[in-house]
Amino acid sequence: MASIELLITGFLIILLAASLISIKSKLPYTLALVFIGIALVFLSNSSLPGSIGGSLSQIRDYTLTLGSSQGGELFVGLVVPPLVFDAMIHIKSSDLKSVLRASFVLSTVGVVVATVVVGVLLWLVVGLTIPVSFLFAAVVSPTDTATVLEVFKRIKVPSKLSALLETEASFNDATGIMIFTIVLTSISTSTLPLFKSAISFGLIFGGGVAVGLGVAFVAELITSLMSDRLSETILTITVVYGSYAAAAGLGFSGLIAVSVAGLYFGNYTINTTIRPSNREALRIFWEFAAFLGNSIAFLFIGMRTDLVRLAQSAELIVAAYLTVLAARAATVYPILTFFDKVSKSIDQHFPLKWRNVAMLGGMRGALSIALSATIVSSSVISTANANTISDMVLGVAFTSIILQGGLLSSYAKGKFPEEVTTKQEEISVRLAAVSSDIDALQKMKSDGKVSEGEFLSELERDRDSLAEILDELERTIGPTSLLKVRATQLYDSISSSLTSSASKSQKNERDAKKSSAYNSNENGEEKKS
């Protein structure tokens, strides 16, 4: 039995190895994790010496626990919420407003249509039984949250398009639960409780929204009483897992509660009640939390991937994957084309290349694999059929990540040459944010709200941020004179401010020492007299 310290060290070494492989081979980090997971399963089954083999076996066992019927709930409740929250706090309200209707229809009507299309094709064309066909369809039709959020962090597409697919992936949780419940109930009772399930869906979705808003608003009130960044970070952790637990405990959608809380925090709380100097620390923390969550999710996929079993079921997996693609096309193109035609605002148009990205971006992954384990514990179909569904889900997820991830990245690079412009706009926004922070800091200093030491410390951080921006300009954008001049001027002004502040601080110290020496001398003379 390996110690917990050794297990954590092993996990961190795996993440470091994936990063190095990704850098050297230009392979996406998540795919590197998938392949490492496959290799680890092979190595853990071989005869490696003592503690190394034991550690690998335990890492495999702990990771594969996520694939059990109870582990599915653990994965959804522990790993996915940070991914959703991190994505939602970066979505601007203006972007969300322009894509909200389309995103809602994709995550509700789209999931229903996709389930029907996949189920019918597998039943009538492939020849599977109705229970197997529609249970597989129910599990795999919602797009996977972890996979979609990771991909759209990595590729460069317009922020509104990214918001569309990220909110769809976060919102379709409630629809997936409703459809899965309908199919399971229909198989066990031979009835189709549509009316009851529609009411249940409204409660699951609407209740999740209400809980998310309520928790986020209360947290904002508490945040207004805080100024310490560690306390604010702990509060956001409480918001994420508290909103999920509260919604799930009441029978609502926990992921929708987290999504709404993240949107509220990103558009209101962070910009109003959290100090500018603490905002970046908060974002960095959740970026790191999402990174760990993604790492666990994709390592889980790799460790669940049995290449021998996939090869034995290759024909069935290919057929299932093609039906999933057909279902995605049957939802994305009609729905987004409809909104593109009826929209009167140019901000709400969905051109063909956006629809193509949405088509490729509808991937399946760790969430579908974890949820497929609940079919075994439901006892409505045989173990053999449950294993067939599990193999199909795993094969579709693996194929989806390998094929669609690469195609999506290549397509986005070719179809969105405005990436450089977007980068310039991003850097311009970052420069403006640093300038705003400096102005706010100077005002706080003049009002006596920060000490000289705090003022110098915050200026140091702003100078480091500007140094990073200057370095990024050199490495990625090239000669963009206007931005570079602005950044250089800001950098020089902060450096001179730091120098003058430091000189003033030193002068004050010298004056204090002189005053102290003078007082000592004066006291000595008084004692003599």
Overall shape: it is globular
Class of the largest domain in CATH?
Mainly Alpha
Unreliable residue stretches: 475-480
Quick one: biggest sheet?
A: none
Number of domains: 3
> Given the structure, what is the number of helices?
21
Structural class: mainly alpha
- Helix amount, in percent? over 70%
Q: How widely separated are the two ends? A: 79 Å
CATH topology of the largest domain: Na+/H+ antiporter like fold
Architecture of the largest domain, according to CATH? Up-down Bundle
* Beta-strand residue percentage: under 5%
One letter per element, helices H and strands E, the order comes to: HHHHHHHHHHHHHHHHHHHHH
Radius of gyration, in Å, reads 27 Å
- Tally of extended strands? 0
- Average of the residue pLDDT scores: 78
Could you provide a short overview of the structure?
This protein has helices at 4-25, 29-44, 50-64, 69-88, 93-107, 109-126, 130-140, 145-154, 159-189, 194-223, 229-249, 254-272, 276-304, 307-312, 314-342, 352-360, 366-378, 383-415, 419-446, 452-477, 481-528.
Provide key terms for this protein.
529 residues, mainly alpha, globular
